[in-house]
Amino acid sequence: MGKQIIIQPVSRIEGHAKVTIQLDDSGNVADTRVNVVELRGFEKFCIGRPVEELPRIVTSICGVCPWSHHLASAKANDAVFGVEPAPAGKKLRDLCNSIAYTEEHILHFFFLSGPDFVMGPDADYSVRNVFGIAQANPEIGKKVVRNRHLGTQMLDIISGKSIHPVTAVPGGFSKPLTQKEKDKVLPMAEEVLEFAKFSIAFAKENIFPKYLDTVKVLGVINTGFMGTVSEDGALNVYDGKLRLMKPDGSFTDFAYDQYTDFIAERVEEWSYLKFPYAKAWGEGFSMDTANPKGIYRTNSLARINVADKMATPLAQKEFEEFRSNFGRPAQLTLLYHWARLIELLYNAEHAVELLNDPEITSRETRVPVTPRAARGVGCVEAPRGTLIHDYETDDKGLITNLNLIVGTTHNNAPINMSVNQAAKLLIKDGKYDQGILNRVEMAIRAYDPCLSCATHNLDGRLPVRIDILDADGNLINTIQN
Amino acid sequence: MDYLEKEILILGCGNILFGDDGFGPEVIEYLQKNYEIPSNVYVCNTGLSVREILFNVVLSEKKPKKIIIVDAVDLGKSAGSTFQLDVDEMPEIKCDDFSMHQVPTSNLLKELKNYCRVDVKIVVSQVQHIPEEVSLGLSSVMRDAIPVACEMILNEIN
Questions:
Q1: Are A453 and B48 in contact (CB < 8 Å)?
Q2: How far apart are alpha carbons A420 and A183 in whole angstroms?
Q3: CATH code of residue B138
Q4: Closest by Cβ to A12, choosing from B1, B44, B102
Q5: Which domain holds residue B139?
């Protein structure tokens, strides 16, 4: 047995993650594994609770995407109660979702992944962080803060609470938007749209061209994709149908509640996190990077790949340029960042569009619901991937069964494969250096998983340690910052 | 409420789904129910989302004078003991993982204290037990520690 390299984040942030790289006797990569700890016991905890409580409870699952969980749960409630939410309520949910997206995508691009690109992957770790960006580009730093803060303020005005939202309820939205509130929020949304335009232009001019060589090789794998589209095939992050695309670009559309006909979840003994795969393709499951089977990806690149078009004009222009450059489906993993900026633009445009819709200030924001025994599946596109809430209730409306599939889980197999590919690229004949840490992290961060900031501390010190163990498990070397 | 306009932020961190880990949010709820909060003070149960606020505060031109973090820790002390931690006093090994939560809080707090000149106070209580699986409710010793933590916080804001 050869050496084993373990890359283990020191900090506990969005989940604990550990990368293990197993070398063979020649010092080349034999196997890699990425472990992420999963929330345990949530399903059991929910059994017997009134289903309408869940939209409020699920916001405590995740400090990163509380809005996504809140909305997926409210949609599952609609389905359980068998109601179509009031149109204005649906629009208010959609609006909050798009605003939350802009906050999240700005955070990810400028704070989490941006430093790798803005400061460069080989920049000293003491400056390769958000503070480095703020010092090197103080004006951008100020704009980032202002625009993220605008997002928080808009959500506070619309829903009363931006962190633990409670306003999406079965049948709609509990708080109508007044004309006065709308007049206050609209200019804020327009300002965020200006920043979204600036962000993608800035990235296309200053960042992507410089790192295209890295984009072409790092973490590259060949997979299918899944995301949500509207009936007309346009990208939609709040509502629509699921589209599962094979690596060759052919695809099948299906309703949320049919997801179990298309996706299965595989368990591996070495990971708490399940591995969803496309069972509908009938080829089984394999994470062999040379010949993957059943593997699909979610999150921004997947959504851009499965969509036929964008529903807003500026995003459509960017979408056309992206597709003309990289084809369909685009497979290069680091293109997730580019796709994320197209989505930032779409969501900023969409928020302004919704605020200009006269129906957004309607007082009729919810319809009444009555408990019944039923199954309901709610789905939204969380920034990190397709989020599925699947509930079953008895005739009193109490939960009898529950299943959640979150964005990071869909990407569990692809993250493992991208790390495997990156490690094979970077470790030859037992030779490796600290650069491997940065680049393996970059491959993981492209997926913006819920461990993304665990791999990038803000004081500049990488929260990563490589332990090299001999065949008997004895520590023979440690590399860390 | 615009927290960037406030002089003092009191932020309760933790996950109410994991027993004693919900100490910070419970303290915030108790404060809001039982005390009059001055208008220059922002009090928030940030749950797992404290990062959302701290990121913005660190890079913002407007900063509060003081931030009080309320959190649960496991530092091997007697369960329910409540005390203050200084950001600089945290042992290096605990610098990044002292929090029970999913937030890179400690780094941001160090930045706030050392470079942004914000007075950072960390009020913590030693947990008795953090369940492996989702389970609501504090242990009795942690529950008893809530008013103690509130008094510490009030001393700080007064």
A1: no
A2: 51
A3: 3.40.50.1450
A4: B102
A5: 3-157
